[in-house]
């Protein structure tokens, strides 16, 4: 039996009997849920987190990720199945390394792989034979083979022979109570058959359904397509919302009626823009990579342009609404409801609400915000604190903008007590009194 077969069989046995040591690099919204899931089924998990505050929090069983069950975190820390460290000195003791670091865009909308590159360079000197490395970070097709593999092979070891390398893109949907790390189908790809087999086996230990594909590049493209699909369809309804505004039509009425068709359509709704870690960013990874092949991805570029335009559209509609009630922007007092990018989360990365706040502040609008999940924000160097909504007199505001539709808000009370509302999420149309004249006189929909 060859040395590579021995390495494969040894790692396979350790994965199957859960004695493999799993390293999870990056304990953020992807890494920490994954680490807890692996630790729950018996793997010894070492989290590598370069933020010492986060590492200390994990070791103290202090939860900072919404989708992680605090009791489950406490249990796996208490029984010694999960611990966090800040460096790469224990990499040689790990059998599987899962990379879950951010992949942001630069200011010029080009991929920033600095986190992936830094992690790979940290791993390479400690790499040993018989290890599996997988990348979960969303990125452009080719990253695993063209960026990670050469650095790892600079150690003198060879993929598919001495170590195994694959890509399995994360499919985390923060706040989703139905689909979790365990029951969300998992795509796995690798560019040699041995790596694909061992990576698939590893993910099968904790995930209900694993979907192997023929290469790491294919797996990378799967994820960016998924997010591009959403970005393009959201852009379509956002553009429809702007058109309906010109035509004096209710876009929500149009979409609700269109979605009654039992085939050939899928519900998407407009909003103040797109935010978070995926939709505003990931499609542009594919757009950038396509240029290498002299190919222009027109839909992606146009979708990004439309979605980035939405905060400005909300600003315009805000100023128009204020004008209709006879108040100049510089004299107006406005309350923004929600600055998180998504309902019932505290994550305000890339949130369109932040852009709306910035634009209105530049118009010299006196502005407060309320968000039960985001107590403090910093905008252009200025710190703002969420108002105490329970003790806030809504009638003091000339306009309330619903920018994020958090479930905890009593929207019926909000409408009753407010002077005027600009609803960018369509949440007020679901109220029982939504069709009453008193409600409609107060509310402007996006």
UniProtKB/TrEMBL annotation:
<keyword id="KW-0520">NAD</keyword>
<dbReference type="Pfam" id="PF03720">
    <property type="entry name" value="UDPG_MGDP_dh_C"/>
</dbReference>
<dbReference type="InterPro" id="IPR008927">
    <property type="entry name" value="6-PGluconate_DH-like_C_sf"/>
</dbReference>
<dbReference type="InterPro" id="IPR036220">
    <property type="entry name" value="UDP-Glc/GDP-Man_DH_C_sf"/>
</dbReference>
<dbReference type="GO" id="GO:0000271">
    <property type="term" value="P:polysaccharide biosynthetic process"/>
</dbReference>
<dbReference type="InterPro" id="IPR014027">
    <property type="entry name" value="UDP-Glc/GDP-Man_DH_C"/>
</dbReference>
<feature type="domain" description="UDP-glucose/GDP-mannose dehydrogenase C-terminal">
    <location>
        <begin position="335"/>
        <end position="430"/>
    </location>
</feature>
<protein>
    <submittedName>
        <fullName>UDP-N-acetyl-D-mannosamine 6-dehydrogenase, putative</fullName>
    </submittedName>
</protein>
<dbReference type="Pfam" id="PF03721">
    <property type="entry name" value="UDPG_MGDP_dh_N"/>
</dbReference>
<comment type="similarity">
    <text>Belongs to the UDP-glucose/GDP-mannose dehydrogenase family.</text>
</comment>
<dbReference type="Pfam" id="PF00984">
    <property type="entry name" value="UDPG_MGDP_dh"/>
</dbReference>
<dbReference type="InterPro" id="IPR017476">
    <property type="entry name" value="UDP-Glc/GDP-Man"/>
</dbReference>
<dbReference type="InterPro" id="IPR036291">
    <property type="entry name" value="NAD(P)-bd_dom_sf"/>
</dbReference>
<keyword id="KW-0560">Oxidoreductase</keyword>
<dbReference type="GO" id="GO:0016628">
    <property type="term" value="F:oxidoreductase activity, acting on the CH-CH group of donors, NAD or NADP as acceptor"/>
</dbReference>
<dbReference type="GO" id="GO:0016616">
    <property type="term" value="F:oxidoreductase activity, acting on the CH-OH group of donors, NAD or NADP as acceptor"/>
</dbReference>
<dbReference type="GO" id="GO:0051287">
    <property type="term" value="F:NAD binding"/>
</dbReference>
<dbReference type="InterPro" id="IPR001732">
    <property type="entry name" value="UDP-Glc/GDP-Man_DH_N"/>
</dbReference>
<dbReference type="InterPro" id="IPR028359">
    <property type="entry name" value="UDP_ManNAc/GlcNAc_DH"/>
</dbReference>
<dbReference type="InterPro" id="IPR014026">
    <property type="entry name" value="UDP-Glc/GDP-Man_DH_dimer"/>
</dbReference>
